[in-house]
Amino acid sequence: MSETPPDVERLTATGAEAHYRRLEALYRSAPVNRHFESEIEITGPGQARIRFKVEESSYHAAGAAHGTLYFKMLDDVAFYAANSLISDRFLLTTAFNLHFTRPMRAGEAIAEGRWISGRRRVMIADAHIIGPDGEEAARGTGTFLRSHIPLSGLSGYKE
């Protein structure tokens, strides 16, 4: 990381932790997440991790996880890594580049994301998934735009 994360100067240690916990609550509140057994953790400024379960219900016809599962977890973890540095606004995904490296089958997997660059309006974060077999299953890079939506106005963003 060559740049200083955007809001790091504004967030005190206590304020940052509160922001992280509110982002985790926001993740849990999203209706789409009721379809996935997953848990998020903001692990530090510009860093996030999602532990999730790959289930046969997410398989394509050839017996491995469908790409929608890869995309969802990579996009989410990169988004939350980037939004951990922005305390006032919700970010929007404007682009995501995904590379599949191996199929995933049933079991526990981990997606990890980290902020790479961006300070004001556009943020870039990357992510990877370690599949149930312990090997990298996918990686990607997302571009996120600061929206006009205040985080404080979202019902899920609460302590």
Automatic annotation (TrEMBL):
Pfam family, one: 4HBT
InterPro entries given in the database record: HotDog_dom_sf, Thioestr_dom
Residue ranges that the Swiss-Prot or TrEMBL entry lists as coiled coil: none
Transmembrane segments: none
SUPFAM superfamilies linked to this entry: Thioesterase/thiol ester dehydrase-isomerase (SSF54637)
Domain Thioesterase: 63-137
CDD domains: PaaI_thioesterase
Origin: domain of life: Bacteria
Name under which the protein is recorded: PaaI family thioesterase
